[in-house]
Amino acid sequence: MILKKSTKRNKLTKEDRKYNSTISKRRIYIEHVNRYIKKFRIVSTRYGNKRRKFSMRFSLICTIYNFEL
Questions:
Q1: How far is the C-alpha of 58 from the C-alpha of 39, rounded, in Å?
Q2: How far is the C-alpha of 61 from the C-alpha of 35, rounded, in Å?
Q3: Cβ neighbours of residue 33 under 8 Å, at least 6 residues apart?
Q4: Which residues contact 4 (CB under 8 A, 6 or more apart)?
Q5: Integer Cα distance of 50 and 17 in angstroms
């Protein structure tokens, strides 16, 4: 889902603003999850170990997050 943008000539209508606010409210939860995963530095930096272990470690981090919910 993509936010609607206004231009100099075409301003946003009330429906467009409402649409943008509903998307933003949903999006904030996803951004918090991304922030939590980046704390483990597996996504925020270059991964130096073997590729097979990446998916295992990433799924473990996601499991830890889901367990805390």
A1: 12
A2: 12
A3: 65
A4: 12, 16, 19, 20
A5: 45
Q: What is the pLDDT of residue 69?
A: 65
CA distance 24 to 22: 5
Q: What is the pLDDT of residues 1-54, one digit of tens each?
A: 888 999 989 999 999 999 999 999 999 988 888 888 888 777 777 777 777 777
CA dihedral 58, 62, 68, 69 (to 10 degrees): 170
CA dist 68 and 8 (Å) reads: 46
CA dihedral of residues 22, 28, 33, 37 (deg, nearest 10): 140
Q: Copy the structure tokens of residue 50.
A: 């073997």
